[in-house]
Write a structure and sequence with these properties.
The complex is a heterodimer.
Chain A lengths: L4 H7 L5 E12 L2 E12 L3 E5 L6 H9 L6 E6 L2 E2 L5 H8 L2 E4 L11 H12 L4 H14 L4 H5 L7 H14 L4 E5 L7 H18 L2 E6 L2 H7 L2 E6 L2 E7 L9 H8 L7 H4 L1
Parallel strand pairs in A: 3-8, 3-9, 6-7, 7-8
Antiparallel strand pairs in A: 1-2, 1-4, 4-5, 9-10
Helix pairs in contact in A: 4-5, 4-7, 5-7, 7-8, 8-9
Chain B lengths: L3 H30 L6 H11 L4 H23 L8 H39 L2 H7 L4 H38 L5 H11 L2 H27 L5 H31 L2
Helix pairs in contact in B: 1-6, 2-6, 3-4, 3-6, 4-6, 4-7, 4-8, 4-9, 6-7, 6-8, 8-9
Classes of the chains: A alpha/beta, B mainly alpha.
């Protein structure tokens, strides 16, 4: 028995969604990745999407940001359907977003502070000196000092790159922040540092967040609500405190990392 | 083994798809050139990278090309007693053809590969996606500065290459072939026409544009990891060299056909 996100939203009164995906479909040739995905994220809510590799978590984020065009369905941001927006209209919508990429995606040709200030200088047209001061402040928030700010991203460790990526994601103080596998590739301690930094930064900003991760410890720290993506759909969604007691066999197998279960046939 | 007609059809359709993608990419790039913002600082940086840092390789190529051209023309023209034509043919050959084409080929290897590798790496490491999420148009931020810089700096490089090439021919002419210095220079400048230089510089601008366009196009369309970036780099160099040779013929035909 599976519980859909729609049934959850019927049982729990939800505030006006800041972000809503309605029946989103996306296929790459014959491979259907998103098959009628429905998900809503309320104002100020932190939702974590969990799911196995290749289930379409990153595709979901890219469809919301307009990096990929859904084949059908709606992506509503503050009530506005953003599918098909281009040019200035897309850039206007993107001003609401910040994103921490899985690989941090720092620009090698720029210094650390220029990376953090990029959205301010190039996106918002702020003067470099003012943007630099903000970048250094944001870097301090994630525990990086001014010496690192002046350096080159290529010299940073994986954890530091993630922190710089986080500082860049929050530099423009966006309404909505996406975190793509924020703890992947980090040791457990650094993973915990990143999780706590995400929580602190998000609370400071009061932002709405959507995170995709395999890391259940990360999900438990970051999430208000967890949604499981499987077969191109959200097959279960509920509060983070409900996840251990849910009766969904897929979720149960995933959160406990068991070899046996409904995923077993696909794993073997 | 499939049906040969089906194979030919697939190859042709793939070719048409590539032409379509390239046309759209070129259209988006050109429209980005004429819309704000224009990143002057990045454009100047690219001028340094593409132009200034290519000067040694282009200069060396031109110097030895001019030298060997003088030597070969002397040896050939000596068969029918026309050795005095060496300065004339060296300067025309260099300014019309060898200067722009050889500089274009060298830049295609050096600059085209560098652009494709850099942008390809940005693509596979999600830096292009990051640019978009930071409300920055990758065409304006990455493609336009490279296109503009390559189109402006390649003619400048070719003009310098022409001068160095003529100097190479002059050095061989007076030190090895026994020409009088003043006569060699007089024959060079008397024979040279404005159209010789102009056609070479127009070619150079077109070559520069094509090199940057191919580098950007293949970089933006690279897939996978290191192997994908390597393939994009190879494709950028090969396609830019082929386009240089084809466009060289077309421009020459346009300038000099009666």
């Amino acid at each position: 028995m599976t519980e859909t996100s729609q049934s959850v939203s019927q049982s729990v009164p939800q505030p006006e969604p800041r972000l809503e995906l309605v029946d989103v479909r996306k296929a790459f040739g014959p491979k259907v990745v998103l098959d009628g995905l429905n998900l809503s994220v309320a104002l100020g809510e932190s939702v974590v999407i969990i799911g196995g590799s290749g289930t379409g978590k990153s595709v979901t984020l890219k469809c919301i940001l307009g990096l990929l065009q859904p084949d059908s369905g709606q992506v509503r941001i503050d009530g506005e359907d953003t599918v098909g927006l281009r040019g200035a209209a897309r850039e206007r919508v993107l001003t609401k977003f910040g994103m921490l990429f899985q690989s941090a995606a720092l620009f090698d040709s720029l210094s650390v502070w220029e990376n953090v200030a990029f959205g301010l200088t190039e996106g918002a047209g702020m003067e470099r000196e003012a943007a630099r001061a903000i970048a250094i402040d944001k870097l301090a928030k994630v525990g990086l000092d001014e010496d690192i700010a002046m350096g080159d991203p290529s010299g940073l460790s994986g954890g530091m790159r993630k922190r710089v990526g986080l500082a860049r994601a929050i530099a423009t103080e966006p309404d909505i922040i996406f975190f793509d596998e924020p703890t992947t590739g980090l040791d457990p301690i650094m993973g915990d540092v990143i999780n706590n930094l995400i929580n602190e930064c998000v609370q400071d900003l009061g932002a709405t967040t959507l995170t995709i991760t395999h890391d259940m410890s990360s999900a438990r720290i970051i999430a208000d609500r967890v949604a499981m993506l499987y077969g191109g759909k959200i097959i279960w969604a509920g509060g983070v405190d409900q996840i251990d007691d849910c009766d969904n066999a897929y979720v149960d197998q995933f959160i406990h990392g068991r070899e046996t279960g409904p995923f077993a046939l696909e794993v073997t | 083994m499939g049906n040969p007609l089906a194979v030919i059809g697939r190859v042709f359709l793939s070719f048409l798809a590539t032409v379509g993608r390239l046309s759209i990419f070129t259209g988006r790039s050109l429209s980005a050139v004429v819309t704000f913002p224009f990143y002057w600082r990045l454009c100047l940086q690219q001028m340094m990278t593409i132009g200034y840092y290519s000067l040694p390789v282009v200069g060396m190529t031109a110097l030895f090309t001019g030298a060997v051209l003088a030597l070969q023309i002397y040896l050939g023209s000596a068969r029918f007693g026309a050795e005095s034509a060496v300065p004339n043919i060296v300067v025309v050959g260099l300014t019309r053809e060898l200067g722009p084409v050889l500089a274009g080929l060298m830049l295609g290897g050096r600059v085209g590969a560098a652009i494709a590798a850099e942008l390809g790496t940005m693509k596979v490491t999600e830096q292009l996606d990051a640019l978009i999420t930071l409300q920055t148009n990758p065409f304006r931020y990455l493609v336009v500065p490279r296109l503009v810089a390559a189109t402006i700096t390649t003619p400048i490089l070719v003009m310098i290459a022409d001068i160095i090439g003529v100097m190479g021919g002059y050095l061989v002419g007076i030190h090895q072939l026994g020409f009088n210095s003043a006569v060699y220079l007089k024959n060079t400048f008397d024979f040279l026409e404005v159209m010789d230089v102009t056609s070479g510089l127009v070619k150079a601008a077109i070559f520069g544009f094509l090199i940057a366009l191919m580098g950007c196009y293949h970089g933006f369309h690279s897939k996978g990891g290191a192997q994908g970036v390597g393939k994009a780099t190879t494709d950028a160099v090969v396609s830019s060299l082929i386009l240089i040779l084809i466009s060289n013929y077309l421009v020459t035909a346009a300038f000099f056909s009666q």
